[in-house]
Amino acid sequence: MTLERTAPIETHPLRLSDIPEPSAGSGELVIKVSACGVCRSNLHTIEGGWLESGVPSKFPIVPGHELCGSVAEIGEGVEGFSLGQRVGLQPLWSSCLRCEYCITSRENLCSARLITGENVDGGYAQYVLAKAQHTYHVPDAIDDVTAAPLFCPGVTAYRAVSKAGLSPGKRAAVFGMGGVGHMVLQFARLAGAEVVVAARHRRHRKLAENLGAARTFDRSDADAGEAIARDGGVDAAFVFAPSVDALREALAAIKPDGIVVNGAVNEAALRLDEEKRVVGSVIGSRQDMRRVLEIAGAGMIKVVTETFELENAEDALQRLKDGKIEARAVLVAK
Predict the structure, then answer these.
(1) Which has fewest Cβ within 10 Å: 34, 219, 228, 268?
(2) What is the topology classification, in CATH, of domain 155-280?
(3) pLDDT tens, 112-168?
């Protein structure tokens, strides 16, 4: 599915196309894609929400940045991979591996990084080119549809929770129960925290309850932040919805000296008194990604998905835009 111009998803900007299969150069792999998650970032890219930031950086481009598949071709100098081996690719398609961030396991902050599906062709395709040093082995215990979302919401949630410093006895709030939110809830509980969730739709609150939320709050008819504060407040809150209101509610919900981990693009004048803090979080490092796969391979994370065939990518994106996807949509090969 190629994007030749940005436009609202309702106008059908994606086109099912035949394009040349990629060829692996030195240090590269070609992956035969079996499953690719559908992220709200894909929607921003397709609809032109990030054009001023240079995303996408080329046309035409194949979107999609969280995928699972098998090795179809191995380039010169690549070791540790074999043909047919199950692998995955996250948004961090490549980084320089030499700067201060790369050598301290913070490759996601590298200024030379390239993002899958935004700077290079991504996973809405049968085949994708990958850098071997940014490709990951998928544990046998995880099927392809389950594995694909681990490569964006999984690693994003893991890094966000690690930045919050949660531990037993702490309390956390998750604002929104989408692809990232439903994994933040689980990683926060693995850290020992009690977790509450604020979400607009009843089915999302029900999902939170099924995944172990101690309590849920309805964001549609009340100020959830104030309600959580009256309920005792939280030590940390997580916001991954592009909503200024959600960020304000999260700040209201946290205790003095609490922290909001914000993974969305928001612009607002916010009060940061009582030594409250807002920190950014963006995808995750290669080390983070490997740890997520270990945790998932041990059966400690449940990934909730809804599947669509590749040619129905626009249907999945429209449902995502309309708030009708429970957790994560995944495109699958026939």
Answers:
(1) 268
(2) Rossmann fold (3.40.50)
(3) 999 999 999 999 999 999 999 999 999 999 999 999 999 999 999 999 999 999 999
